[in-house]
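Cross-check.
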Amino acid sequence: GWFMGLRTHEVAVAVGTLLMLSRALVRCYMTGGEGSTDQESETEFVIRNMDFPLLLLFMGQFVLVGAVVDTGVPQSIFRETLGSCTDNLVGSFSCISLFSGIVLVLSNVIGNVPVILMLQPLLAYQRDQQQVWYFCAWVATIAGNLTLLGSAANLIVAQIAIRERQFEYNATSVARFSFLPTLGIMVIGTLILHLPIFASFTLLGFLVMVMVSITVIFNGHQ
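Predicted model, tokenized:
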């Protein structure tokens, strides 16, 4: 969707529709196209597998974060913390390091999605918005792997693990395997994006960074 210029909600609706249609086609194929009265419909399947408490959690989170952002307090705190780097977060390596550190820490305190929402008003007035957003997207995404609290996806997996009585998946076990690799990958990616050779080709730098991360993660599981 990104390469085709499509908006996020358009991609989400299209992929969801394709998944539902593919499941319906598989069911028709498995039953010989005749259908079966004892099988649930696609609507019943989707509703049965929806995690309503999780949806309420995200709804409450976005409402709360939006209300906090509207107060202007997060922007004031960010400006005081960032100091002279506020107007150009990628102007120097020291500013990039400070900005990345703030995103990394806050992502593991309140989650990476709320951090992005709180930073959005500040990032909207940056000189080089494309590069700033690449840095922010990279650090916030990788920061979600640092600890169990870094991303809502981690909490979802932890909830499923508890439901399946797999209590080995906890904050300690996750940090044991994710803390140092996450820091290493984040530093590597930040350095790659900051290289002058990638300054005019930020997308190329971003793709190289992703490939490096995949390689490191893959080797770590060997």
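The first helix runs from residue 8 to 30. Residues 218-222 have pLDDT under 50 and may be disordered. Passed to J.P. for a second look.
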